[in-house]
Amino acid sequence: MMEDLGTVYQAEIMRRIRSRPFIIGMLVGVIAIGLLTRLPAMMEGAFSGARSIVLVGDAGLTARAKPLLSDDYKIVGTLPNGPVDDATLKRYKAGSAIELQAQPDGLHVIAYAHDPGSLHKDELSQALLPLQLQLITHRSAGAVEKITSIPITVTTIASKFASAGQATAARGVAYTLLFFLYLLIILNSQLVMSSVAEEKTSRIAELLIASVNPTALLAGKILASATLGFLQLAVWIAAAVYLGGGGSGAGSAQAQESGMLSLANALDVITPGLVAAFLVFFIIGFLQLSTLFAGAASLINRTEDLGSIALPLVMPIVFAFIIAISALGSPDAPLAVVCSYLPLFAPFVMFARIAVSNVPLWQVALSIGINLVALYAIAVLAGKIYRVGMLLYGRAPSLRQVWSVIRS
Amino acid sequence: MLDVDHVRKEFGSVRAVSDVHFTIDDATTFGLLGPNGAGKTTTMRMILGIFVPDSGRVTWNGAPIHDDSRRHFGYLPEERGIYGKMKVRDQISYFGKLHGLREPDLSKRVDRWIEQLELSVYQDRPCGELSKGNQQKVQVACAAVHGPQLLVLDEPFSGLDPVNAAMLLSVLDELRNNGTTLILSSHQMWQLEDLASRFCIIAGGANRADGTLAELRSAWPTRVVRVSPPSNAVRARLESVAGAQPLAHVNGAIDYRVPATTDFAALLRALVEVAPVTKFEAIEPSLQEIYLRAIGESAA
């Protein structure tokens, strides 16, 4: 049987590596990685116009306002007095202008904007509050800062991370890895499914099953697809390292502060344990889904039926992915904890919990144990369906017939 | 030797095979006959180890069918299948590997089959681009590339033009001469009549008749006597035979169905005494007639 398995494995690798779905899947992954690593910078560039402002007013007043506004806005110019028209905003490539007036009762602000919604009054008011206090109380900027800044000390309890920045970076890494996990499991399981469907619909299945043990045939396919999954992963990691390399250095310190994902802070939070968890849950998730897909695909007679038979199997994976994303924010929520044990859900949800919190080891072990038992049950069930389904032609079998095959 | 020993196979409430039994000697050709739904394909699948019989057993050289014995079997199913995107050469090579062939023997055998089936010009083309007849030749090569000890062919001639059918016949002859045991099912009785040395007719999942053509014929209760030229004297003499029934005139001759136990030498002497006879023939039943009668009996 091992010899058969090796022959099928080798043939599947050669067939699939040249297939369009595999190449497209790999390229989609690389493009997605490119977008994930470049998107924050691109978004910042694309929307920077709306946050660019021109300050208008007395030179002393605008000079005192500049440091207060520079965190939230990009100040592209100053003017001594208003009003400001459209031509002025266009000349400075600014989204709005903010005129400051020192009145006896304090600071008055007049805003000119192309899009009034782009200026948030509360945000502006909060940022300029120290200036207002300076004007009303006639105190110095330093004295006002003393009044307005309250020292806050954050003490982390039982946290996996040393700082808020690291925790935010970890969530970014976890989100990215979850996305890869989802892509890898779905794409490679679909490769197995399409391979089985091709053999069934081309009617070569009977010839194959007469030549080789069905278990070896199915196992060869699944192992070949898993190997291609690892190959895909290697290409994606290489792409991430190459494309994310530009984010290192001074930029990465900023990124760490803001929680933005860059290679430098990603490497900080990707521990060997996290890598091991990724690989273990990829293998478990892939084997569970691909075996189910193979069993289901053996029942179809036309490739057009693939979508309808795959949908009910893909839905739990989509739900699992959504729950895993929410688990990144609340890893100990009851739904996340329960789902981190459930077959098909656990590979995503437990991995998400491990990535952002200290999940007790017994919970991880229990989840892996439950899912390995479930994998065995799925393999027995799907294997039975596959062995019979591959030889069933004509009308698609009813649920009752499928059930009788499972029971036999 | 293959021994199919009273096998039975059910799928839920459907009994596909209730009692089929026969033995096949090495390096012989065996014809498995039966109408659609008779249980031929299920029987073949049990022989190949794809299905396990619910009762009875199949043995090859005295041992049950297992993965190792399957390596020495070949199969051409009725539902032809092919990897449309795989090249002809790669496809034949893949099935050779699945049956345990390794280089350099594999390449030699693939080359020989490509040449023998006149597929050389197509060997680097995807199978999906070939005509149906050429695809069928690729399938035959896939089934036989490893030189199987037992080759099962389900309707091997369907879809083949006369030239390719003749080519397949010569291939099967060569395989049998090289020691391969052949099991064939076909609706084209004339081809099987020439090819097979033993037959089994099944219907309703059970044996209806089996044996060599001579054995099957010996069990046939009547013969057709053809006499020429027709005359009233000849007719009268033939009708005097107990159980004789007149049949239609055929090309200036008269046919009568008479019991198989008739003394044909005595009948010929008696006919010659009453009228001039230029042709006298006692016609044996054809495989087609034996088959139709066996099927008819099962239907009844």
**Residues in helices of chain B, as a percent range:** 25-40%
CATH architecture of the largest domain in chain B: 3-Layer(aba) Sandwich
Strand tally of chain A, please?
Answer: 4
Task: Give the low-pLDDT segments of chain B.
Answer: none
* H-E order of chain B: EEEHEEHEHHHEHEHEEHEHEEHEH
Number of helices of chain A: 17
Overall shape of chain A? elongated
Q: Classify the fold: give the CATH topology of the largest domain in chain B.
A: Rossmann fold
Specify the biggest β-sheet of chain B: 6 strands, mixed
Total of domains of chain B:
2
Order of helices and strands of chain A: HHEHEHEEHHHHHHHHHHHHH
Low-pLDDT residue spans of chain A: 246-261
Shape, per Cα inertia axes of chain B: elongated
| Class from secondary-structure proportions of chain B | alpha/beta
Distance between the termini of chain A: 24 Å
Pair with the most extensive interface? A-B, 25 and 28 residues
Largest sheet of chain A: 4 strands, mixed
Rg of chain A computed from alpha carbons, rounded to a whole number of angstroms: 29 Å
User: How much beta of chain A, percentage-wise?
Assistant: 5-15%
Beta-strand content of chain B: 25-35%
